[in-house]
Amino acid sequence: MDQIMRLRRLAGNDHEIDDQNNGHRHEQAFVKIIESKGTLDESLLLQESFAPGVKGKLVPRPSAIKGLLESIPTAVRGIRTGKMRSLSKLIPGVHPKLPGDSQENVKKIYERAEESRVQFNLYISGTDEEMSEAGVATEQAPAEATDSTEQEATT
Amino acid sequence: MKLAYWPGCVSRGFTTELHGSMALVAEELGIELQTLDRANCCGAGVIAEHNQELADTLNARTFALAQETGLAMMNICSTCQGAMSECQERLDANAAYRKHINEALSGEGLEYVAGKDGFTNKNFLWLLVEDIGIETLRSKVKRPLEGLRVGPFYGCYVLRPKPRLGYDEHPERDLYLEQVIDAVGGQVVDYDGARKCCGFPVITMNRETSLTQAGTHVGDAIDSGADCLVTPCPLCHLNLDLQQPEAAKVVGRDLGLAVLHLPQLIGLALGLEPKQLGMQKHIASTERVVERLTGANV
Question: Has the ipTM of the complex gone over 0.95?
């Protein structure tokens, strides 16, 4: 699964492959929402997954409009029973941010990780403590490889 | 028992009845929950797909917030469990990587320490069986769910991959729902879909495939005589309950099977009322469940 994810990262982020079924728009929307809100704004995710930029930047495709329209009956049922009966669940973007300076700290995490983008390319077994006991050196820079945790840094 | 509590995003979003019922059930079970209200989304595997380091840092932040409390951590979402376990595995695997991640948390005065004070992060289902205990649960039942035929629905993220999810130490984790259903007096329904994917992860990408999966599993449970399903995953709940009328159209048959959150099933057995547990908020009617309980004359 990790290797499939790695391929998806390559397809979406590095080669900007974006078709209706590969989930790239869903991923992009999800990532942006957590950066700005900290927790998931589900109604904004739904809108942005189908029609990114509906609020301004991009023109949604016909298939995206169809996807959004297909979701309407589900939303109506949710409103009727009370599952989706509040402003923050109905209106994309109304969802609250994390309290205090937490949201700002999440943004800082994004800035650093998007710059660094360390990723493992490995099958993990055990912990470094176990490796240390076995005499395997583990105190290495993240971009270097160990016997059981081969890594690579990509940007 | 006091726990650092991560409710996740969906239990405070489209399934507020889960968050509410967990609070009530915790009180009945003598659990004090300290909510991690500064914590962020686990990423649900999606952020890890975008940038592994980003997902690992966000989850390290949540673990560090939990460790600050000095308490064990509990979540109520299988998807959170799976996504967090994945990140924790990477964090615990390499001290240099952990140091690199912790540098990002230092500005907030946080640090994730692998294995600190035996730190654990468990889904409510796991905690219920392993820390509270099936016999303790059984002893607390005030309203045995006699006559209620319940189909377990686990969700992928507490089942796979087993090496990451602690199955070496707890090999029966994929049987816990059956044990819990039995402990609260219900009858376990064996059906094909119990351990399969609900289809939620592809709902925005391939709606028909997603709804076919959900509709097929619900249909299988109905054909096996279930009165309801129970799941520890709110995302599975969304596809199996919120989307059930749409799934019925896709699979071309009538469905109409209640899908309970795990705390709701426990809550009913502990004597709480369906309305207290938010069961009226479900899309698929829960009336049959209530009728069964009334029929049991409790």
Answer: no
